[in-house]
Amino acid sequence: MKTSHRHGLRRLVAVGAAVTAASVLLAACGGSDKTATSSGQAQGSPDAVNAALEKGGTITYWSWTPSAEAQVKAFEQAYPNVKVNYVNAGTGNDQYTKLQNVIKAGSGAPDVAQIEYQALPQFALPGSLVDLRQYGFDSFQSAYTPSTWTAVHAGDGLFGLPQDSGPMALFYNKEVFDKYGLTVPKTWDEYVAQAKKLHTADPKKYLTNDTGDAGFATSMIWQAGGKPFSTSGKNVTINLQDAGTQKWTGVWNQLVTGGLLANIPGWSDEWFKALGDGTIASLSVGAWMPGVLESSVKGGAGKWRVAPLPSYDGQPATAENGGSTESVLKQSANPALAAGFVRWLNHDGGVKPFLASGGFPSTTADLADPAFLDKKSTYFGGQQINQVLTSAAGSVVKDWSYLPFQLYANSIFGDTVGKSYQAKTDLDAGLKAWQDALVSYGNQQGFQVNG
Amino acid sequence: MSTTSPLRPRRSPLLTGLMILYLAYTLIPLLWLFLSATKTQGDLLSSPGLWFGHRFALFANIRDTLTYNDGIFLRWLGNTLLYVVVGAGGATLLATAAGYGLAKYKFKGRRAVFAVLLGAVAVPGTALAVPTFLMFSHLGLTNTVWAIIIPSLVSPFGLYLMWVYASDAIPHDLLEAARIDGAGEVRIFFTVALRLLAPGIVTVLLFAVVSTWNNYFLPLIMLSKPNLYPLTVGLTQWSNQATGVGARPIYNLVITGSLLTIVPLVVAFLLLQRFWQSGLTAGSVKQ
Fold this sequence. Notes:
The complex is a heterodimer of chains A (451) and B (287).
Chain A: H1 2-31, H2 46-55, E1 57-62, H3 68-78, E2 82-87, H4 93-105, E3 112-116, H5 120-124, H6 146-151, E4 153-154, E5 157-158, E6 161-162, E7 168-173, H7 174-179, H8 188-201, E8 208-209, H9 214-223, E9 229-232, E10 235-238, H10 243-257, E11 261-262, H11 269-277, E12 282-286, H12 289-296, E13 304-308, E14 324-328, H13 335-347, H14 351-356, H15 364-368, H16 370-373, H17 385-393, H18 406-411, H19 413-423, H20 427-444, E15 448-450
Parallel strand pairs in A: 1-2, 1-3, 8-11, 10-15
Antiparallel strand pairs in A: 3-14, 4-5, 6-14, 7-12, 7-13, 9-10
Helix pairs in contact in A: 2-13, 8-10, 9-10, 19-20
Chain B: H1 13-37, H2 41-46, H3 58-104, H4 110-122, H5 125-139, H6 146-152, H7 156-169, H8 172-180, H9 185-213, H10 217-222, H11 231-240, H12 251-280
């Protein structure tokens, strides 16, 4: 008895020692990341970009944009000396995980990567991206809508050129609206009234779905005039109870607590199905949605229409929802060439192939193009949808900014605000829990967070 | 259970019922997978989950899965096979040799090895993925097949299992006899020990094959070139195409691909299950 007990104890100590050794090893590996080349950066110039494109070379490009392959082909034709290794390294978060790892490892990053607007501060502020002002790209300002131009900035720096934009609009199923005598709402109060009317008439149908989506919630707060996140250097302020946020929860709480939202997560196969069969009668979503509906919700052809997003006072106001930029990574061995590729992608020849794949432009010239504006969409019953969507692009509420750790914030949205959705209770309580978690995370990450 | 005959317990309707429930619980997802793989993308979204759609599109789906994106699925299948054959095969070989050595030779530091081994079993591979990535990145091995194969070669649990199994399955006297007959240690290992260890080896091999076949997080982190992906990461990438700006859902191909992905595993289990069963109880009874 006694010996075996001692025996066991000794073994335990040995195991403990082994585990400790392993964790020390881990810590050593984790701590050896290099953050070199953060300051001493060679100054570029517009001429350097042209010279690099002429001279040629090889760059790697990470993107999940459907048009990426066609764009790369067209680019290599225009600049035969340049070879672009196109890699689809994953959609959204998958790619960001990889990007963060290679940045931490100090090597292996692509020269150019697609980054969503909401994720840009997270990569730009720690100094992982190249400020494109040195190549004179700040002179392109007038070519883009104000909201996307703001979105490619972090602090004072310019960290990409806008690829697309997603001003929100109300997409609705006219067949369902007609059948149940719903009117297209101009204000959110009217919207709530329609939601009640529809769900009462047919308990299987919902005006919209929302199971708690961080991208949607932040866009809605943005539209309501909320500015919950602000960053200045290492100082971050989080206030998810400001006037704008409360304006949004004032409306959305009625839908959540009233059980008026379909419990169908966005982008699931059930969701695509519900968009086709009328279970979900409307969506408040970015202007890039028509392409998705046309290609993937065949059952909705001819039924869907677009209207301006409802607002709080009936005056046009909207927010951006989704959209990406292409950025040059600091690790790039040839940043001038990479910048030249970005310039071609989102300012010159790359824009047309992108639009051909169904993307919504961020370039003012394309938005004003009569051929684009007046195009009638058969999917939308012949409606000139781009007129509605372009006017939305001009009424985006100003001065929004995302957190420098927005990806983490989005990943814990479900654990905090999502609980309010599931329990059908006050969203403000969930937002508060979200804020608390974000404040403590931000402080751990070395920010000074007020909230 | 039964007082009369302990070897032939009476049939219990309750247990039979529970087993049927459990069987349904295990088989319904497989049935769903098969039925869904017979549907077109449109039918998938408009027909009930546990019955056929309007069109039987299984063969069209298989063809599309194998040809989508220039047949990248076959490439992924080949990658998975490579990782499994080299990774899981190597892991089994190493675990067998090391387990035998630890069980049958007395040497200094055996206890320390045991302690480290137990510690290694306790640390989940997922937790080590990011540190391993950083280490491999310094070595310039990320984005190569070695980034998947080398970590797969290490199987602490397999080693532990082989150690325990070898301790019981190979009598010391037998080794003594072989030595007296003049056989060298290497020859003893290959001609005597390996045969006795066969059930254990199959068990470890199956464990290693399953874990390498299903390996997701490590390749997700290590690889950013789609033509090196194994099936798990590739199918996830297809599935994620259905999200956000420019979404192109191909759920029918994701599902058909998943069905094709599990077929080899099912076959491996059916062929090796009797070894698997005998190996599972290895070391649980002391003789």
